[in-house]
Amino acid sequence: MTPSSGPDAAPTEEDPLAATLSEGIGGPVGTRAGRHPWWTPLRVLLALCAVVVALGMLQKAPCYSDTWTDTDARYTQMCYSDLPYLYTGRALVERAWPYSGDAELRERYPEVMEYPVGISYWAWGTALVAQGLTGWADLDERQAADPGSLFGDPEVQREIRAFVIVNALGFALLSLLAVWLLARTHPRRPWDALWFALSPALLLTGLVNWDLLAVVLVAGALWAWSTGRPVLTGVLIGLGTATKLYPLFLLGAVLVICLRQRLWRHLALVGVSAAVAWLAANLPALLTGYEQWRVFWSFNSERGADLGSLWLVAAQAGDVALEPSTINTASLLFFAGWCAAVFALGMLAPQTPRLAQLGFLLVAGFLLVNKVYSPQYVLWLLPLAVLARPRLRDQIVWQAGEIFYFACVWWYLGGLLDDGGGGAAGFYWVAIVVRVAAELYLVGLVARDVWRPRHDPVRRTQPVHESPVSRGLQH
Fold first, then answer.
1. Rounded CA gap, 421 and 414, in Å?
2. Which domain does 250 fall in, by range?
3. Membrane-crossing residues (predicted)?
4. In a domain? residue 4
5. Which residues, including other chains, have CB under 8 Å from residue 304's CB and lie 6 or more apart?
6. How far apart are CA 323 and CA 303, in angstroms?
7. Which of the residues in the chain have pLDDT under 50?
8. Quick check: 142 and 94 in contact, CB under 8 A?
9. What is the tally of structural domains in the chain?
10. Angstrom distance (rounded) from CA 108 to CA 57
11. pLDDT tens-digit readout, 327-381
């Protein structure tokens, strides 16, 4: 029996920690174990993910019950979300197109959506759905009111709750789709998606912002590449980049694989299709409001050291003022060096690395030097991490660091980590360093797996061919 035709690799068979933990429920799966006629691995994964997503909604219940008006509870109970505040703060409450240049609208709402177009389109569309479900409010009355007063309006609060529910249900479907895609990326290893489906990071951060839109596109790109669809891979990377910038870095991973295997046609197909998809997604915004479209790019270049970044630790702990231009230059140089190191690692490795491994290393490097690390940014790494290093112990170590940071950032914003003298919150700096250390721990293991493929759990059970034929593109 060949590896590709054998049974699915179960976590209790090849993951030491999973096998140990299974002793309390009967031990690892046996060689004569049968399969349930209906509960396939994929259905189990989807059911578990549905439970986690539901718990994630429940975790936001304290804030939902008072429509995020209790400024203390959103931090002390860690149920903060950007969605309700941006609903009124970015003119979604008035059903305004995010890229409208209308002078009167911009006078009332000078701040526009500071996200790539994919998120702006989704937010606008879900705002329309929420208002449709709540009865289409009279816009004339709202346009006559002070925008700052709308958040407290009872009718608007009803819409905000509907807006959050519509988005939460959409995120639930996206999470299930991501699990489906990840479970099918490696045919014999559907259970690798378990670490995504049961992720505490998914539970805690899925509703903070719209990052799950990009996550599912990254998961789709990993699946498309594994099934030999370079055009679809490029399209999904392009759409992902139009939603969040970081999926762009997957092109670097594709470049390494194609150079090693001399897949020039596939490299061109991925690159061209990604560019076309990105441009097609951006065209409506470019044609209707170029100035509003470019805010995302200027906003990120002009911001200084922000939450969760090592730059913030350096600025606060060292009591120095770091100019945005200085951070921009230093971050760019560091990330360029990091990309060069990942490129060298990928090209010199004994075997062609997998797409998830290279993608994880590149995105992790970007996050390590980014000027801000919002709590939900852990989702960027999640689909890449669970396929790059599908080991329970390593996922626990990494996500434990992320959970620790998740709690500390809200307590920091709520003023709970300030010292008795009202000075800086050194414990928050510790939380940032712990998160970075946990991320570097996983980076080190993935880099080792690339350099010494015998340590890679996937290669032990999933054939990874060097040829572009058949499933050769699964790298």
1. 16
2. 41-474
3. 42-59, 160-182, 194-225, 231-259, 266-287, 329-349, 355-374, 395-413, 425-447
4. no
5. 311, 315, 322, 323, 324, 327, 371
6. 9
7. 1-5, 420-421, 465-475
8. yes
9. 1
10. 32
11. 999 999 999 999 999 999 999 999 999 999 999 999 999 999 999 999 999 999 9
Contact 13, 29 (CB under 8 A): yes
Residue 343: both structure tokens together: 């490129």
CA gap 220, 355 in Å, rounded: 12
- Exposed, middle or buried by CB within 10 Å (0-12, 13-18, 19+), for 446? buried
Angle of helix 117-134 relative to helix 212-226, nearest 10 degrees?
Answer: 120
* Cβ-based neighbours of 332, under 8 Å, separated by 6 or more: none
* Listed residue (172, 192, 199) closest to 356, CA to CA: 192
Check: CB of residue 449 under 8 Å from CB of residue 176. Answer: no
pTM for the full predicted model: 0.93
**Length in residues, the chain:** 475
Whether 16 is in a domain gets the answer no
Query: Do 314 and 320 touch, CB atoms closer than 8 A?
Result: yes
Please check whether residue 1 lies inside any domain of the structure. no
The answer to whether the beta carbons of residues 311 and 322 sit under 8 Å apart is yes
Concatenated DSSP letters of 170-237: HHHHHHHHHHHHHHTTSTT-GGGGHHHHT-HHHHHHTTTSSTHHHHHHHHHHHHHHHTT-HHHHHHHH
- Whether residue 289 lies inside any domain: the answer is yes
Round to whole Å and give the CA distance between 474 and 463: 9
Angle between helices 355-369 and 250-261 (to 10 degrees): 140
Provide the token pair at 156.
Answer: 């608007």
The per-residue pLDDT for range 43-75, each reduced to its tens digit, is: 999 999 999 999 999 999 999 999 999 989 999
Question: What pLDDT score does 49 carry?
Answer: 98
CA distance linking residue 11 with residue 440, whole number of Å: 24
